[in-house]
Write a structure and sequence with these properties.
193 residues, four-stranded parallel β-sheet, 4 strands, 46% helix
Amino acid sequence: MDKLKIENPAAGEFPALEGKLDATGRRFAMVVARFNAFITERLLLSACDGLLRSGAARKDIEIVRVPGAFEIPLAARTLALTKKYDGIICLGCLLRGDTAHYDVIVNEVTRGIGQSAQETGVPHAFGVLTCENLEQAIDRAGLKMGNKGFEAALAAVEMAALTETVVGRSSLVVGKSRKPKVAGRKARSKSKR
C-alpha cells in the first residue's frame, strides 16, 4: 500500500513544532460505536486506511466496539490509561431526533473524550459525527465530504508524533541533558516486538 503524501504549507516566519504524518512503530486503538453501524463501519474502514497509509502496521491497530456513542469516552479512557497506545481514535454517529436526547449525548460524548485526552496525556481523535439527518451522516462518511474516519486517523497520527516531540523536548526546558523516554513506548517496543 502506498504511503500517504501530504504537502506541507510554506514555513512561517517563526519555526513551529508539528507532528509528522508517520505512524510507523506507533500503536493506535479505535473505539467504534455499534449504534448506526451503517455509518460507523464506513468511518472505521477509512480510519484503518488512513493509519495504514501513514505507516502503521496492522498488528499495531486495536479495534474496540461499544454499544453507542455514550460509551465511547469510558472505553477510550480505559485504553489510554493502559499506556499501550500512542493515540485513541473515537468513531461514532449521532443523529438528531425530535427530543433533547441528542443534545445531551453530543455534549457528554464531546466532554468525555476531551477530558480523557487531557487527563491521560494520550491524544484522542474525535471522529464522532453529529448530524441533523442520515443524509448528512452518509455525506461525511465518504459520499460527498470525504470521510471523517480517515481525517480522525490522520489527526491521531499527527498528534501522537507531536506529543512525542514535545515530551522529548521537555528536558530542554528543565535544563537536563538527556531526553526522557515517552511513557511505556521504548520499553514496549523492545519487549513486544
